[in-house]
Amino acid sequence: MLEIPLGSKSGIESCMNSYITRRLLGMVPTLILISMIIFVVIQLPPGDIVTSTLDRMQAQGVEVSAEQIQNLRAQYNLDQPMVLQYLSWIGNFVTGDMGYSYLFSRPVNELVWERLGYTLLITVSALLFTWAVAVPAGVYSAVRQYSVGDYVLTTVMLMGLATPSFLLALVAMYIGYEWFGISIGGLFSPEYRDVPWSLARVGDFLSHLWIPMVVVGLGGTASTMRILRANLLDELNKPYVVTARAKGVKPIKLLIKYPLRIAINPFISTIGLLLPALISGEAIVSIVLGLPTTGPALIEALINQDMYLAGSFLMLLSILTVVGMLLSDLLLAWADPRIRYE
Amino acid sequence: MSELAADFQVEAVSPRQLAWIRFKRHRLAMLSGGFLIFIYLMAALCEFITPYGTDTRNVQAINAPPMSVHFFDKAGEFHLRPFVYGYDMHINADTWMRDYVENPEKRYPIYFLAKGERYEFWNLFYSDIHLFTTKEGYLHLFGTDQLGRDLFSRVFYGARVSLSIGILGVALTLFLGVLLGGLAGYIGGLVDRVVQRVIEVLQSLPTLPLWMALSAALPVSWSSLGIYFGITIILSLFGWPALARQVRGKFLALREEDFVMSARLLGAGRMRVIFKHMLPSFNSHIIATATLAVPGMILGETALSFLGIGLRPPVVSWGVLMQQAQNYQVIVLTPWLLLPGLFVVLTVMAFNLLGDGLRDAVDPYSTAGQG
């Protein structure tokens, strides 16, 4: 690999490729460990799907014979040892069969994708919102260090950091109702809920999307802004900036062309740290606002011990996080050559 | 002249004193520290500070708004002893909700250190002396909930649970983080690789969904105390990796230092070297990091209890209190039920600011707060 002269086009590409390969391979043991953790977690509650099904049937007055119980246990592989249960669960998961949700009486496959799509959409838009707020705020705070604006921004961001996202969602509901007379909740107005996609439905969707976006995104802005501010402050005090300034480079051009580009690099790697927080925030905000995403379904599945559904959601959310972290690492490697030559 | 002389005076200051001097310059951190001491004291003494118990119901004031404290009565006359006005309740014909109007005829003076409801203090002795209460009528500074329970009292009883979970959770996190991070950094090799892999996995998991899964797994039959410790353990289970990572880095660097080598050559055991020689050289950093970890614990407990899978009534915590404000009808009609949230925000902010101040103060290369 090193025989190819560094800096040549193909050299960069092969380095990048080998970096991607290494990272992809590194993901495999991580995901296996995660799947084991999740399997153990969903096995933890006392009783299992069969006992809770039996409880419900007996509550309805249905007589269940020992043979039926045996059949049910066999159907869910519950008569096999733990390790085999895990292997069949993860084997089916990998091949795309996520099992059956008795809570919704439908295969899990049919339930998760749409919800996961909305979760992804809200998380990504919240991430974009975080950046859209944190980058200008961080740059301003660094350039005008210790100004009134710096303190105001820092304080507002700190409050955003300290407010639980569900409280923020509640306050958003209160403000929406008291000041604008609208009820906030859901991703669609009632008239658009069950109709096929159209331009009007997209517009309605977007008008509902911004509230979860802001509420979920606000929590992460504080840390992101402060990382950028600190990085930029380090850069701004370096001699090359002074030199450029002395030579008369326009302040705004100087700022964007050199220090900001360097300061933004560590910033990219914060995506990885931000993602688990965003997905967590999304889950609880969706529960409060009643959005049709993974959060509300997950908690319902957990409370009702719908193991296949809960396990699939946990697994998919974890994969989402791991892949997001991988993407942020790749982005960083693309933006910062030093990483990929490591 | 005297100032000049002071400049030349040679003073010896220990690193600890230096950190304290730097910390004192951080005014917001000082203020936050003061606030936290205050709120923890309030939480510790909540039986004495609050006028009512957690389950005392006042059927005359159900869903009543916060009462305002007056010094001047309706005739404009000044009273040194503050008082509140009792409520007149009537049903609003539009909303079918109870509307409360202050009735100037019902004047309830507030007495300090007066006898009120009987309570058991810290399970040690019985008393009926409260910091403040009324002799006749009732006193609801933060209003009441839908069962007519005093929110002010419940907020401070809740503070005891929420705030202690924060400290207990961080203590456990600290233990796990220092132990595992220390072992990884000190022993290295296979142990290090395993710990690092676990850290990586735990840090790439979406925390809240997993917290939800684990706390939903806590058996319903457990006692309140069992659930309390269960939640604390769940919260720390995902909190230690960040700390362990830091500790590991420090240990890797310190392992090569001469003083560690000499301790080892003198025959000190592994645990002695770790806890007696290496840890003290950066325990101030650990304290700062731990302070910054408390908010996560408090927010975690609040979120889980709010969702109904954390602490459950009759336990009172800030999250349990917020559970009453789940939908916007409740928030619009009885917005004071969000008051516990204000305490969460203030406490979390105070911990963040205090942690920032501590971190700057213990960093020997920091220039923060010197200007």
Protein described:
The complex is a heterodimer of chains A (342) and B (371). Chain A is mainly alpha-helical. Chain A has a domain at 107-340: MetI-like fold. Helices cover 77% and strands 1% of the residues of chain A. The longest helix of chain A is centred in the middle third of the chain and has 38 residues, at 199-236. With 371 residues, chain B is of the alpha+beta class. Chain B has 15 helices and four strands. Chain B has a four-stranded antiparallel sheet. Chain B is elongated, with a radius of gyration of 26 Å. The chains are: A mainly alpha (342), B alpha+beta (371). At the A-B interface, helix 1, helix 6, helix 7, helix 11 and helix 12 of A face helix 6, helix 7, helix 12, helix 14 and helix 15 of B.
What order do the helices and strands come in, and which of them pair?
The complex is a heterodimer of chains A (342) and B (371).
Chain A: H1 9-43, H2 49-59, H3 66-75, H4 82-94, E1 100-101, E2 106-107, H5 108-143, H6 148-162, H7 165-180, H8 199-236, H9 239-246, H10 251-257, H11 259-289, H12 294-303, H13 307-335, H14 337-340
Antiparallel strand pairs in A: 1-2
Chain B: H1 2-8, H2 15-25, H3 27-44, H4 46-49, E1 70-72, E2 78-91, E3 98-121, E4 125-134, H5 151-187, H6 189-203, H7 207-216, H8 224-237, H9 240-255, H10 258-265, H11 270-278, H12 283-307, H13 318-322, H14 328-333, H15 339-362
Antiparallel strand pairs in B: 1-2, 2-3, 3-4
Helix pairs in contact in B: 2-15, 3-5, 3-15, 5-6, 5-8, 5-9, 5-12, 6-9, 10-11, 12-15
